[in-house]
TrEMBL record:
Gene3D superfamilies noted in UniProt: NAD(P)-binding Rossmann-like Domain
Family classification: Belongs to the NAD(P)-dependent epimerase/dehydratase family.
Originating species: marine sediment metagenome
SUPFAM superfamilies, alphabetized: NAD(P)-binding Rossmann-fold domains
Lineage: unclassified sequences, metagenomes, ecological metagenomes
Domain NAD-dependent epimerase/dehydratase residues, every copy: 4-227
Protein name in UniProt: NAD-dependent epimerase/dehydratase domain-containing protein
Length: 237
């Protein structure tokens, strides 16, 4: 399958790219201008430099590539979850979907967030009600539903994944698990404000494998939660 990918050089993206390459897919990755090609990516992976704010500048490259599907994982300026940044990313995503539809792309898969469910307790399923409680989650949820409408109007398949608490190498240093590891290495006691809080933690390689499996095997436009299925308290962690 020929795939156009955004967010391929973030935290989760490189794991997905390597998994896709391993499975024989041909990839074209949008690369932000300040970044350089990751050294450990397969040489068969193609890159175009640009950003989602200037789609017209690299649209011809995607047109020539003629992707069968697109994978949208990009979300700029995390961990800035402000209204301004969330609206910007929502616009980028919707513009991208419309451009992909014009280019004849027939399948889009996106990464959403468990935050779309809000502060829910207990088990969650794809049928659980969404109650986004911050601008980031609202924007993700809006991108999901508007993306579905764009896909419906253009006879495209649209798949939405909701990722739970992903951890692993390459994660931001100020995230929970990297901070705990750093404290332990330095012989310090981690300061945890809410040790009894529980989340579903999932390793980044498992997330990548799940995303690729969904891409390859699922054609119907729907939602897929990607988590471990287990609730773990910060104290247990």
């Amino acid at each position: 399958m020929k795939l156009f990918v955004t967010g391929g050089t973030g935290f989760i993206g490189p794991y997905v790219v390597r998994e896709l390459s391993k499975r024989g897919h041909k990839l074209l990755i949008l690369l932000n201008q300040p970044k350089s090609q990751p050294l450990d990516f397969p040489k068969t992976v193609e890159f175009i430099k640009g950003d989602l704010a200037n789609i017209e500048s690299w649209k011809p490259n995607v047109k020539n590539f003629q992707p069968d599907a697109a994978m949208h994982m990009a979300w700029e300026d995390i961990p800035d979850y402000s209204v301004k940044t969330s609206i910007k990313n929502l616009k980028y995503g919707l513009n991208l979907f419309q451009e992909l539809a014009e280019l004849g792309c027939k399948k889009i898969i996106c990464t959403g967030s468990c935050w779309e469910y809000g502060q829910n307790h207990g088990k969650l399923s794809e049928d659980s009600p969404v109650r986004p409680s911050n601008a980031f989650a609202v924007a993700k949820n809006a991108l999901h539903w508007l993306g579905r409408e764009i896909a419906k109007e253009n006879n495209m398949q649209f798949i939405w994944t909701r990722l739970f608490y992903v951890y692993g190498p390459g994660q931001r240093g100020n995230s929970l698990i990297p901070c705990i590891i750093k404290c332990v290495k330095e012989g310090k006691k981690p300061k945890i404000k809410t040790p009894t809080a529980r989340n579903d933690f999932i390793y980044v390689e498992d997330v990548a494998k799940a995303i690729v499996a969904i891409l390859e095997k699922c054609n119907q436009g729907t939602v897929y939660n990607i988590g471990s299925g287990y609730s773990t308290s910060i104290q247990q962690l």
